[in-house]
Design brief:
This protein has about 260 residues and is mainly alpha-helical. It contains seven helices and four strands. Keywords: Coiled coil.
Length: about 260
């Protein structure tokens, strides 16, 4: 979190006072986050390049040292063979083993690099999927007239435990056993129906309904729960939804 600080600003006579800058709000501003990311990358990129140069230089020096040591060993082996202390087969086996060890080292290094790259790619894919899930569920929640926008952060953590993206990039809800969650109509659960169902398990996510606690005009209104009302709207046609909203406005239907 940013620490709020007081900034001094010069205001000409007749101008409105500029409100203090809210640093906490800045961290939720996409434009500011993009600006910050660009500047961080600008500062970090030269350091990454320098680090890569140093690593390449170190690798080159190591290869030269190894070649130098190999040359010395080759000279010693040839002298030993001429003196009869080393036969040809032993020399060949020694060279083959040395080359094999070198290639094994290179192969292990390449495999480790590929594994690191795979982990990095998987991590970025996971972040992207989580962002897409939160964005999609958040949009559905904010379209719900009773949902509290202040509950959005808490909703995101709950959604992450229920919703996943399939290979086609579609949202799929899964139960605790990993099976696809089914809605009231026998089809896969939709985000709208899931949000509506939270009125029973997470009632604090939703606003107090207009007319709550009453029974409408002259006390004759039909009382329904928030969850029932949301489910009814979800399954209603356009004309039925219009009629339901009219009944609610007139007091024939009261949300408890």
């Amino acid at each position: 979190m940013f620490q709020a600080s007081k900034l001094v600003s010069l205001i000409r006579f007749g101008e409105d006072e500029v409100p203090p800058l809210d640093f906490n709000a800045l961290q939720e501003n996409p434009a500011f986050l993009d600006f910050l990311k660009a500047h961080v990358e600008k500062e970090v990129t030269p350091l990454k390049s320098k680090n890569a140069d140093l690593l390449n230089e170190k690798k080159t020096l190591a290869e030269r040292m190894k070649a130098f040591e190999s040359g010395i060993q080759e000279k010693d082996d040839l002298e030993a063979m001429k003196a009869g202390r080393l036969d040809l087969q032993t020399l060949l086996d020694k060279r083959i083993n040395a080359n094999s060890a070198t290639w094994q080292e290179k192969l292990a290094a390449e495999q480790a690099e590929k594994e690191d790259l795979r982990k990095a790619v998987d991590g970025e894919r996971l972040k992207l999927k989580q962002f897409q899930i939160k964005q999609s569920i958040g949009q559905v929640a904010l379209k719900n007239e009773f949902f509290h926008p202040s509950a959005l952060d808490d909703l995101m953590s709950v959604a992450g435990n229920t919703w996943q993206l399939n290979d086609a990039g579609e949202l799929v809800a899964r139960d605790s056993s990993g099976n696809v969650a089914i809605g009231k109509n026998g089809r896969p659960l939709t985000p709208d129906e899931w949000i509506a169902g939270l009125t029973a398990t997470k009632p604090h996510y939703f606003k107090q309904m207009p007319g709550s606690g009453s029974r409408g005009v002259n006390g004759t209104g039909k009382a329904v729960s928030t969850a029932e009302w949301q489910r009814t709207l979800l399954t209603a046609t356009a004309d039925e939804k219009k009629a339901l909203l009219a009944k609610r406005a007139s007091g024939e239907i009261v949300i408890n």
